[in-house]
Fold this sequence. Notes:
Elements: E1 17-18, E2 23-29, E3 35-40, E4 46-50, E5 55-60, E6 65-71, E7 76-81, E8 87-91, E9 99-104, E10 110-116, E11 122-128, E12 131-136, E13 141-146, E14 152-157, E15 171-177, E16 180-185, E17 190-195, E18 206-210, E19 217-219, E20 225-228, E21 235-238, E22 244-248, E23 257-262, E24 271-276, E25 291-297
Parallel strand pairs: 1-22
Antiparallel strand pairs: 2-25, 3-4, 4-5, 5-6, 7-8, 8-9, 9-10, 11-12, 12-13, 13-14, 15-16, 16-17, 17-18, 19-20, 20-21, 21-22, 23-24, 24-25
Amino acid sequence: MSVLGNPETFPGHDGGAWRPVSSTIVASWPAGHFAENLAVSDVGDVFVSLHTHNRIERYCPSTDSVRTFAELPAPVAGLAFDAEGWLWATGGAVGQTPGYVWRVNPDGSFEPWVEITDALFMNGCTPCGRSLLVCESLTGRILSVDMKEPTWRTWLADERLRPTSPQMPGANGIKLWRSHAYISMTDSNKIFDALVDANGVPGSLSVFADRLRADDFAFAESGAMYIATHPVQTVMRLNADGERTTLAGPAEGVVGSTACAFGRTAKDMESLYVTTSGGLFAPYQGKLQDAKLVRLEVGERGASVLKTRRSS
């Protein structure tokens, strides 16, 4: 990483220039918790998956309060709202079958939707039409889960999405932007993209960016990609023209950054929320920290997201 001072360099990762932004820790959980992912509802509440504790937490910016929203029977990983406002969650014990997808109700109760018998690591997810696309991080697949009927199929399979390093995720985060699906491949320090046609069928994968360690990510209106780098302990911005900037590091509270999403209220429309593990699997300077939800003031809005109607 070609930054000066803080944060430190990381092998195989180029974070560009170091330009830290203002940050606020808005929620935290004791060391040993792993905040894995997040999704923001249409009213602006931020839902956070606590993978280690089988829970979804709900942070309300208007009251600056956090409460437990849902408790599930297995570790929770990816979160996403669909066009009708249902909250979808993926999960399961890493390295063990099966994998799960749940539909979570507005009151925090949930419906087991599908069980993927051979899934080893259900991870990031995003809606695509009536389907929920889910990264299966150990088997080189993107799964398509029908959100109207409880069925699933393999949407895309590619050996380049399968990890080669032990205990390292392959396909990790997935988002759609301008008719393309973007997939972070953590193990190889790459982001892939594939054109998605009008019927939701993906084309072949190509390398969109390399030399960066990406966990999950979010798009801004400008087309810039904001990336949680997890073991690099930073959040970076990859502009549409390829320019790279690191915006936050350990001093800003993003040790073990796992995912990010833009706020949706007048108060936080140009803010980026970031979940962290506190360095649970990659401690910063040998010390484990609390897991956190951090708000970064990035000065631009997120890309248009699906309008939701069931999140209040």
